[in-house]
Design a protein that fits this description.
Elements (H helix, E strand, L loop, with lengths): L3 E5 L2 E5 L18 H9 L13 H5 L11 H8 L3 H5 L3 H4 L5 H5 L6 H16 L3 H8 L4 H17 L1 H8 L19 H29 L12 H14 L10 H25 L20 H26 L1 H4 L4 H26 L4 H18 L8 H14 L20 H5 L1
Antiparallel strand pairs: 1-2
């Protein structure tokens, strides 16, 4: 095997290609973080112990770059307990967890699951404030996470009339109901409530991503880097078309499910922003009347987006339950986000159905439950798996910014049956 030579305190040594070296060229002293290694084991990612660095995972990954490919090096760093190095590694976010690597590992090392656990650890590490990320990641805090939005919404309803009088709002009720839930949930109250906490969630997300970005390596001389604005545009283009995810072969249904969730959520977000800005939106001609009629283009877009989003959630759940070995292990961190998203969509449809039937007080109860889960999805965004939308985007921008060519020149994945066995790899 070709090696690189060096000296340390007058002693010659040989270094395997890809070995971890300190900046001065000397071997790196490793101080394993044993608590971190134990934590990986609790997340179902202890399979890194089976890795013997054959490189099958990196060779078979269709989006891993040829230079310093993942996930081989991450498997070694995880086994060595190199937590700090892994938290500064943008490659754990470039991985899309398609599990091509896990299904082809000759020893069942499951690198996809290991990198998924590392992404969760990254969210825990960079989140602001950290205790909320701890709450979201542990099942014992689930009752508290549901009670918190319910209590806050209840307080908002109790203080509705005093706030309306103080702010000068008048009732929207007249001879007919225009705002279907205005008697309990006035439009101004919902906008103010979710606008305030949504702003807090946005600031927390920005703070976490900023800490993550500062920890990432800076561009090196000679790299084919781009400007920051160009990098953002390039990354967004890749995200919109899901071109990296489409290269994955093992879990094609996960690709379809992510497309459904992504575009369904975009449709619902567009309708929500249209409603929130209805009174001041210059694109709206004539009187703004909400709720929309059933045949309103915005109502149809919302229903279509909700249906696509719900279908995506069903596909994600089915994919995880139907074949966990192929789809990868699922932790509470995964289920918290997927099920919250599914409940938000489902209760939204039930709320609409009960409104058309004028079921009292059932429609108000379901609407309250719907708002509780919408609040949870929004306010816990920086701390749940939903934070992937921010951290992965930052990592993809960083890849463009530093000129890291990932997934462009790697050949297509070989069939599963063509992968060597453990015995063949050893020989």
């Amino acid at each position: 095997m070709e090696t690189a030579e060096g000296t340390s305190q007058g002693v010659e040594f040989e270094v395997r290609p890809g070995a971890v070296l300190a900046e001065d060229g000397k071997p790196l002293w490793i101080d394993p973080d044993l608590d971190f290694i134990k934590w990986l084991g609790t997340q179902g990612a202890e399979s890194f112990k089976k890795c013997f660095q054959c490189g099958t995972c990196s060779a078979t990954c269709p989006i891993s770059p040829e230079t310093d490919p993942f996930p081989r090096k991450e498997m070694a760093w995880a086994a060595w307990g190199m937590k700090e190095r892994l938290l500064k590694d943008p490659d754990i976010w470039l991985c899309h967890h398609c599990n091509d690597c896990s299904t082809r590992c000759p020893r069942g090392g499951r690198p996809g699951d290991v990198l998924a656990a590392l992404r969760q650890q990254s969210v825990l590490h960079y989140s602001v404030p950290t205790f909320l990320a701890v709450w979201v990641s542990q099942p014992r805090f689930a009752p508290l996470l549901l009670a918190l939005p319910a209590i806050l919404l209840g307080l908002a309803m109790i203080l509705r009339d005093p706030l309306a009088e103080f702010l000068g709002y008048t009732s929207q009720l007249g001879g007919r109901i225009v705002f279907s839930y205005s008697s309990f949930f006035p439009h101004w109250l919902i906008n103010s409530f979710f606008g305030f906490f949504g702003l807090l969630a946005m600031l927390a997300t920005i703070a976490g991503v900023f800490r993550f970005w500062r920890a990432l390596p800076a561009p090196q001389a000679g790299q084919d880097s781009k400007g920051l604005f160009q990098s953002i545009l390039a990354a967004l283009k890749k995200i919109i078309v899901h071109d990296r995810f489409s290269k994955c072969k093992t879990t094609i249904w996960r690709f379809v499910a992510h497309l459904c969730v992504f575009f369904g959520f975009i449709a619902l977000t567009a309708v929500t922003l249209w409603v929130i800005t209805g009174r001041v939106n210059p694109l709206i001609q004539g009187e703004f009347v909400y709720p929309f009629s059933f045949w309103s283009p915005w109502k149809m877009l919302a229903n279509l987006g909700g249906a696509v989003l719900l279908m995506g959630c069903i596909l994600l759940v089915y994919d995880r339950l139907e074949d966990s070995d192929r789809a990868g292990s699922s932790t509470y961190f995964d289920w918290f986000f997927v099920l919250t998203l599914a409940v938000v969509t489902f209760t939204g449809f039930v709320t609409e159905f009960m409104h058309y039937l004028r079921l009292e007080p059932h429609r108000h109860v379901i609407y309250f439950i719907h708002l509780v889960f919408v609040f949870g999805l929004l306010i816990y965004l920086p701390y749940s798996k939903f934070a992937h939308i921010a951290y992965r985007t930052a990592a993809m921008v960083h890849a463009e910014y530093t000129g890291r060519k990932w997934g462009d020149s790697v050949p297509a994945t070989a069939p599963v049956e063509d992968v060597v066995s453990e015995e063949e790899a050893i020989s």
